[in-house]
Amino acid sequence: MAEVILESVYKRFGNVTAVEDFSLHIKDEEFMVFVGPSGCGKTTTLRMIAGLEEISDGTLRIGDRVVNDVPPKDRDIAMVFQNYALYPHMNVHQNMSFGLRLRKTPKAEIERRVGDAAKLLQIDHLLDRRPRELSGGQRQRVALGRAIVREPKVFLMDEPLSNLDAKLRVEMRASISKLHRRLGVTTVYVTHDQVEAMTMGTRIVVMKDGLIQQVDSPINLYDKPVNRFVAGFMGSPAMNFLIGTAQNGRITSPQFDLKPGGELSQKLVSQSGKKVYVGIRPENLGLRGATSIPEGDNIIKAQIEVVEPLGAETHILASVGGDQTLVARIDAHARVQAGDSVELLADLGFLHAFDLEHEHNLRFV
Ligand SMILES: Nc1ncnc2c1ncn2[C@@H]1O[C@H](COP(=O)(O)OP(=O)(O)O)[C@@H](O)[C@H]1O
Ligand SMILES: [Mg+2]
């Protein structure tokens, strides 16, 4: 078991800085997720922890040891990749035990570890099969098994579920979470999928352009995003951003005049006269007359463009003043159709506002 500590870590490829001033303290037994769009530096950071990529600057510790110059095989980590990387000519047992055999682990110990891991992953009936005789989900379990038998201090996983279909991904997501609870091994898990990040992480690092944007628990990232990027990245459908003008603690435009709750309203006073983004999540909007959101200083006029009934709820895509759009999650039984002019009510306790220049959440400025 071990902590992983990165202090001001940089990775430069020529004149491209892939990872910049990355500082993070991953606690023992934590399930830490790195999330962000493609190219933001997730894999590079993970590969630096693994030792597969040299660190350009900064310090990396695993446990109480600085490992900047320690080769991968001596770091006591195990990595799981998106493409499984199984040996096609070996059966499941051989794939899982390969690393242990290289290390000359005693045979009885190998049998015990492979047996335990196979049982845990429910692949104990597949030990004689070759990878091509397995489904995608089974192959991914073998790849996990190969990591587990190493009994490492840290698991590193790079988009391990991306090659699976949607249903299997949900299943494997739960399996990996359960596995983590069982084994309690410090895990760093990379994904571009915010749902995976939210559902699996004890904490999440949101990255963009090689820079950490925010490190927090899933619910704090959702409720208290520090900037517009984080606010827009976490949540589906994404948070709506409408441009309005700050005025006397309100945010106004020809289509709306919103007065956010106390604290934010005060922060807006310093922005008076300036344009700001108002951020509203789709679930914090309702149809006037058909919502439990109380009315008062919170009306947005909109015209419905698309209605998407999903059964449990309905999403509407609506135009606000012709040049802006928003998505609202409304009651599945609301009677609305494309073309309708409607009034939406915003739940003022959940409003966010961001300045146009830095896109910081004004609540925290
Ligand atoms: N070996 C490399 N040489 C040059 N640039 C690289 C190399 N590996 C990654 N990069 C660049 O570093 C940035 C981060 O890449 P990566 O860590 O793979 O992102 P992610 O995993 O978040 O999609 C990208 O701009 C990518 O093009
Ligand atoms: Mg990657």
Count the DSSP helices.
9
Q: Which outline best applies? A: elongated
Could you state the order of secondary-structure elements as H and E? Answer: EEEHEEEHHHEHEHEEHHEEEHEEEEEEE
CATH topology of the largest domain: Rossmann fold
Number of strands: 20
CA-atom Rg in angstroms? 24 Å
Q: What structural class should be given to the helix and strand makeup?
A: alpha+beta
| CATH architecture descriptor of the largest domain | 3-Layer(aba) Sandwich
Topology diagram in text:
Layout: E1 4-13, E2 16-26, E3 31-35, H1 42-50, E4 57-62, E5 65-66, E6 77-80, H2 92-102, H3 107-120, H4 136-148, E7 154-158, H5 166-183, E8 186-191, H6 194-200, E9 203-208, E10 211-216, H7 218-223, H8 228-233, E11 240-247, E12 250-253, E13 256-258, H9 262-269, E14 275-280, E15 285-287, E16 299-309, E17 313-320, E18 324-331, E19 341-346, E20 352-355
Parallel strand pairs: 3-8, 3-9, 6-7, 7-8
Antiparallel strand pairs: 1-2, 1-4, 4-5, 9-10, 11-12, 11-14, 12-13, 14-20, 15-19, 16-17, 16-19, 17-18
Bound molecules: adenosine-5'-diphosphate (ADP) and magnesium ion.
Q: What can you see in these coordinates?
A:
The protein is of the alpha+beta class. The chain is built from nine helices and 20 strands. Helix 2 packs across helix 3 (107-120), helix 2 packs parallel to helix 4 and helix 3 crosses helix 4. The longest helix has 18 residues, at 166-183. The radius of gyration is 24 Å and the shape is elongated. The two termini are 38 Å apart. The mean pLDDT is 95. The site of magnesium ion (MG) has 2 residues, from helix 1.
